[in-house]
């Protein structure tokens, strides 16, 4: 115990620095279940406010789906609250293996292993399957959890410019002498909402004898005609060597993740991936909930179809209002404001109008690309989206950004 | 050599209108991240048919075009 005043002062100074730089993250307390309509206490101690949530990863509206909640209750009753063990000691129940088999079928792969989160899956997978004789070639905009996993792996690491297939090919040629080459990408990129060119990447990987890894966290359940993910959307089901994904977004929203892919690579994770070996199994009620989610999504595409039409309505509405959005067709729709303070001001004013959406700015996104990231859900009804559009129009008018070009907004507010 | 290396750095890492001189700080200036040093090292080794020991390929040694040139010259026969 040597937590001296000097030590306390050192940390206080760092935290004050974050506050002064506008980088201090503050939690908002939600008093309701996750859904389109939520009740929020913000700032702490303020009266509860009913708002429409357009910033959750609840793409398919499964977080509080009654059948999923019921299945989780049943799982709690039949299989208990927790397992008090990692998987390979005494933490594997029948339902864990059932879920792995269901995910394998859903994603069209050979086998699957569950992890406590997709962050853990990404942290463990590279180290488990690659060595110092290999190279990892990743898109420069992959998710932070992939970066962390790459840092933990002894293989060489290189990058290619975001979605630039010519650059990727140059890198595959440059590293052609390596024992194994692995190309690494997100399926849908979380900040811009754009989609990886998996068909082109699969072609290149075939040409240069490379493995292909994709993180489908922002696509599993709703991208592609039957919601299997970006690989379905790009027509390359069965060609992915490794898919990682989460059960914390479209596939239920609770927690957990997995590595799915070639059976030998999955087995390598089962033998060697440290987050799998040294952390608890996914809790039984969550496993039971995800099983129900996959049953619902396998039986019908209604929810992903509704999400697709909601997304089209939302994108069209924002464009008609005169706002600048990132092009694409995914439910991640960034409204571009370019200036960090403007993004924070617009977010605050939207909240006052009953719309919960968060501003993102440097260093989360590149300098000069501040934005409000909106995320659409199958849990939204058209009246939710109409109300949110009305708020965007009102706030946009206040700041005189409707119908303005990027250049005009930057001239007025700066980068 | 300076022009070849500078052209490679611009093509590989500069994605906007950033002006680059032979003394511009590449790593400490955030133009080249530490991950991307790998491809720079491999490019230099292939281009000049040299082998740069890992312990010599430090962020400091790669921090400008001029510093990279000095490093490469140590290994060119």
Question: How many E-type strands of chain B?
Answer: 0
Helicity range of chain A: 40-55%
CATH topology label of the largest domain in chain A: Aspartate Aminotransferase, domain 2
Fraction of residues in helix of chain B: 40-55%
Order of helices and strands of chain B: HHH
Interface with most residues: A-B, 9 and 9 residues
Report the major sheet of chain A: 7 strands, mixed
The DSSP helix count of chain A reads: 16
Structural class of chain A: alpha/beta
Number of domains of chain B: 1
Question: What share of the residues of chain B does DSSP label as strand, in percent?
Answer: under 5%
CATH superfamily of the largest domain in chain A, by name, is: Type I PLP-dependent aspartate aminotransferase-like (Major domain)
Backbone structural class of chain B = mainly alpha
The rounded distance between the terminal residues' Cα atoms of chain B is: 14 Å
Q: CATH architecture of chain B, please?
A: Orthogonal Bundle
Radius of gyration of chain A: 22 Å
Give the CA-based shape of chain B.
globular
Give the H and E element order of chain A. Answer: HEEEHHHEHEHEHEHEHEEHHHHEHEEEHH
Q: What separation lies between the terminal Cα atoms of chain A?
A: 46 Å
Could you explain the architecture of this structure?
The complex is a heterodimer of chains A (415) and B (77). The longest helix of chain A is centred in the last third of the chain and has 20 residues, at 302-321. Chain A is built from 16 helices and 14 strands. Chain A has helices at residues 5-20, 66-79, 87-91, 94-107, 118-129, 144-151, 165-174, 198-207, 230-233, 263-272, 274-277, 284-299, 302-321, 340-352, 382-398, 406-413, and strands at residues 29-30, 37-41, 49-53, 111-115, 135-139, 156-160, 181-186, 211-215, 242-246, 257-261, 332-338, 355-356, 358-360, 370-375. In chain A, the strands form three sheets. A seven-stranded mixed sheet of chain A has the order 4-10-9-8-7-5-6, sandwiched between helices. A four-stranded mixed sheet of chain A has the order 1-2-3-12. Chain A has two domains: 31-60 and 302-413, Aspartate Aminotransferase, domain 1 (Alpha-Beta Complex), CATH 3.90.1150; 66-299, Aspartate Aminotransferase, domain 2. Chain B has 77 residues and is mainly α. Chain B has one domain (2-75): Orthogonal Bundle (Non-ribosomal Peptide Synthetase Peptidyl Carrier Protein, Chain A). Chain B has helices at 2-13, 37-48, 65-75. The longest helix of chain B has 12 residues, at 2-13.
């Amino acid at each position: 115990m040597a937590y001296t005043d000097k030590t306390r002062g050192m940390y206080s100074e760092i935290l004050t620095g974050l506050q002064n730089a506008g980088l201090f993250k503050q939690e908002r307390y939600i008093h309701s279940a996750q859904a389109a309509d939520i009740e929020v206490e913000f700032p702490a101690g303020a009266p509860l406010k009913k708002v429409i949530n357009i910033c959750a990863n609840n793409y398919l509206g499964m977080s509080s789906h009654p059948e999923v909640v019921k299945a989780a209750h049943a799982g709690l009753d039949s299989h208990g609250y927790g397992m008090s063990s990692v998987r390979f000691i005494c933490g594997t129940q029948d339902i864990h293996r059932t879920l792995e088999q269901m995910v394998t079928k859903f994603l069209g792969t050979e086998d699957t292993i569950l992890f406590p989160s997709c962050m853990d899956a990404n942290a463990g997978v590279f180290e488990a399957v690659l060595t110092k004789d290999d190279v990892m070639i990743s898109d420069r905009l992959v998710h932070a959890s992939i970066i962390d996993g790459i840092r933990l792996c002894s293989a060489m690491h290189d990058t290619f410019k975001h979605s630039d297939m010519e650059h990727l090919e140059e890198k595959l040629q440059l590293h052609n002498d390596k024992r194994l080459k692995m190309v690494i990408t997100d399926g849908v990129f979380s900040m811009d909402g754009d989609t990886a060119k998996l068909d082109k990447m699969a072609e290149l990987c075939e040409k240069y004898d490379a493995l292909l890894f994709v993180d489908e966290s922002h696509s599993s359940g709703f991208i592609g005609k039957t919601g299997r993910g970006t690989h379905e959307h790009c027509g390359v089901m069965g060609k992915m060597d490794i898919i990682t994904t989460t059960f914390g977004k479209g596939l239920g929203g609770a927690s957990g993740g997995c590595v799915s892919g070639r059976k030998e690579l999955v087995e390598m994770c089962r033998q060697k991936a440290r987050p799998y070996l040294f952390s608890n199994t996914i809790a039984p009620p969550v496993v039971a909930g995800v099983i129900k989610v996959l049953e619902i999504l396998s039986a019908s595409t209604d929810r992903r179809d509704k999400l697709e039409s909601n997304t089209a309505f939302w994108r069209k509405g924002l464009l008609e209002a005169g706002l600048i959005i990132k092009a694409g067709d995914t439910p991640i729709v960034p409204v571009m404001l370019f200036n960090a303070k403007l993004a924070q001001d617009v977010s605050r004013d939207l909240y006052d109008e009953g719309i919960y959406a968060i501003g993102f700015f440097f260093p989360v996104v590149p300098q000069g690309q501040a934005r409000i990231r909106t995320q659409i859900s199958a849990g939204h009804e058209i009246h939710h989206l109409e109300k949110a559009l009305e708020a965007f129009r009102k706030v946009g008018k206040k700041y005189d950004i409707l119908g303005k070009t990027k250049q005009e907004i930057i001239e007025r507010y700066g980068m | 050599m300076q022009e070849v290396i500078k052209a490679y750095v611009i093509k590989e890492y500069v994605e906007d209108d950033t002006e680059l001189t032979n003394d511009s700080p590449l790593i400490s200036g955030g133009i080249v991240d530490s991950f991307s040093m790998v491809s720079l090292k491999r490019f230099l080794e292939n281009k000049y048919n040299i082998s740069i020991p890992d312990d010599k390929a430090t962020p400091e040694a790669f921090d400008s075009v001029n510093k990279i040139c000095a490093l490469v010259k140590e290994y060119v026969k």
